[in-house]
Amino acid sequence: MKLLKVDTLEQAREKLLAQITWDMGKTEKIPVEKSGGRILACDVLAESPLPYFPRATVDGYGVRAADTQGAGESIPVFLEVKEEVEIGTVPSGEITGGTCAYVPTGGMIPRGADAMVMVEYTEPFDTSHIAVYSSVPSGAGILQIGEDVEKDQIILTRGTRLGAAQIGALAGNGIREAEVYKPLKVTILSTGDELTEPGCPLKPGCIYDINTPALARMGEEMGFEIVHTQVLPDREAVIEQALRQGLRSSDLIVISGGSSQGKKDMTSRILDRISNPGVFTHGLALKPGKPTILGVDKESESVLMGLPGHPGAALVVFRLLAGWLERQRTGCPEKPRVPAVMESNVPAAPGKDTILMVRLLPGEGGVYTARPVLGKSGLMRTLTGSDGFVRIPLGKEGLKTGETVTAELL
Amino acid sequence: MKLLKVDTLEQAREKLLAQITWDMGKTEKIPVEKSGGRILACDVLAESPLPYFPRATVDGYGVRAADTQGAGESIPVFLEVKEEVEIGTVPSGEITGGTCAYVPTGGMIPRGADAMVMVEYTEPFDTSHIAVYSSVPSGAGILQIGEDVEKDQIILTRGTRLGAAQIGALAGNGIREAEVYKPLKVTILSTGDELTEPGCPLKPGCIYDINTPALARMGEEMGFEIVHTQVLPDREAVIEQALRQGLRSSDLIVISGGSSQGKKDMTSRILDRISNPGVFTHGLALKPGKPTILGVDKESESVLMGLPGHPGAALVVFRLLAGWLERQRTGCPEKPRVPAVMESNVPAAPGKDTILMVRLLPGEGGVYTARPVLGKSGLMRTLTGSDGFVRIPLGKEGLKTGETVTAELL
């Protein structure tokens, strides 16, 4: 058993970035309407101003503002209605002194008009005239050319996750394809003679595999493409073959195994044999998460991640390393964490970063209370009973009742 | 133009629930590994205890705790090693006084043993004996039968969204299929002679359609199945036909149109004609969101939702109504909102609920500052520049600088 120095989470992250000497930022163009949840790989500029014509923001009459000066509730001004502008069309004439045109919300303001009078402040007077009971300033009720977006203005920046609003903005600018990052291809392997695949009968002493489906789902949530999952026995040759296959097909290979020392040594040995330069992190100063291994293979341009066997630890470390890597790769910022107030004191693990699972209880004024979810390593309950987790940084003795923390949602 | 009383958001929600007299909670059974993001339609009970055998949580030796009494760093106790238990197998013998068995993490504890001594506190003595340098209490290093989950205990409740941890819990309990709610089938229609579909040339005065792709994406994010989207001209017969088709194929039909009064009246008239009992909410006391229409058709068991034409208003109202309806239907709780401190004073709209778009800026101690994103109705910028929105309830005059609010993320 080799004794190796563990890395802090930050050290491991820095090493990982330094080792990735290839381009992880491959992109593809996809139709905007299929780009939901994807991340923009470049800034998007407006090809034309928005709106590209002066546009009514109310139902009413396009007027020359000067013509309405002095109009009031009991002193109407009378204007001749020259036309009814239909939405989606160009007004046929120009508004000159003493005239106006009906324009619906969203319609084009005719030349000559510089303000809208809302229909509520007008009344038909005769077949060709209206009475106006309000004076309006120039510009009222009009969205000017480029007022929303100017031509060549950046409307969305690289690293933006495309949600409903962003897809609307792209569509509104007439953009049909979005250049987004290709999802990382991920292989997920779980090792252990005791692991049983779903649907198979359970032999005494064996357990159903948790890590493969749980890590696969978390990978999907982080935007990865899961290309392969497999449960493997504790046989070196079989594991090596699966890892080599992973190198060929994936950008990231995740292997989680038993937490026994023998297995950890075996995984590390195989990873070192099949990859170059191989494993550079042999453990994390993180609780839970110590038995974490990180390596790269420059030839196949793959990242290798050995995760702890305990499902809770495996999921947290996967988020802290692969989720972080994905943000580095794409420039997509972290989702807002939820601030919460600690319900009780919790000590930290000395010399390590400590991850504390928490349940968020709604509190006064919308501020959450963070209730620690404690339990022995490997309990399912701590996983399903938590809304998220809090990180206690190395060097901090613990968290105090009433202290504000920020929880990363699971 | 009929003058109709508007409803508050809460009134509209109550009316909607009261009008839905059919079962919206249809369910389906799907494989657990494909159930990510879906919502459980029933409580899930454990079919067997977890673990179902006493399980080692450390690498070491299964012992009778009484045999280790008195052992210490300089006073070892010597025990005979009867066997090496392999993971995934049943120990062959029983531990009697003065004996022990090697058990790896995750392995089954042999009968007779009631504690684990970690390998770090032992040393090989001769070929068949070890020296133990620490005394352990009964139960140390062992997860007892049912300690994580007891048989028939509820492991996940109805309304739970299935994330990575939940999928892991189902898999670990040997559950292969999850009973989840069927997604609501949704038709999304946008109306307007000015609306141009992506890729078509823009005629002067026309604009690209925003609402269809934006609402479709938001619907997907809320868990709906978008069965049809269509952009329609302002022609009553065409709109009526599309709505009738929607009634046949969908649980929810969303139509957003121009904000001009004529169009709103037309939409309301058509909805009333094709549905029974028809429209019951003719406007919301909500800013933005006034031109919102709600109805149901009991024969086809469909909900009808007329949304404002402005994309920002349409998206917010869709979330506030359809997102709320989905939570009612499935019992899935709202995702945690993010508490934040107002950066400036903002007045509310009198007599209405006010929705304020905000940007969340990271602040001291992880608490966000909420910066209001203001702008004329219908600006794209207010949409893409916001992280979420804050609701100022009717009757509240506004928000004050420094006041804590909770933002619903977009």
TrEMBL record, chains A, B:
Its EC number is 2.10.1.1. Pfam families: MoCF_biosynth, MoeA_C, MoeA_N. Residues 187-328 form the MoaB/Mog domain. Pathway: Cofactor biosynthesis; molybdopterin biosynthesis. Coiled coil: none annotated. GO terms for biological process: Mo-molybdopterin cofactor biosynthetic process. Its cofactor is Mg(2+). The keyword Transmembrane does not apply. One of its GO terms (molecular function) is molybdopterin molybdotransferase activity. SUPFAM superfamilies: MoeA C-terminal domain-like, MoeA N-terminal region -like, Molybdenum cofactor biosynthesis proteins. CDD domains: MoeA (cd00887). Keywords: Magnesium, Metal-binding, Molybdenum, Molybdenum cofactor biosynthesis, Transferase. PANTHER family: GEPHYRIN, MOLYBDOPTERIN BIOSYNTHESIS PROTEIN. May be involved in the biosynthesis of molybdopterin. This is Molybdopterin molybdenumtransferase. It comes from Candidatus Blautia stercoripullorum.
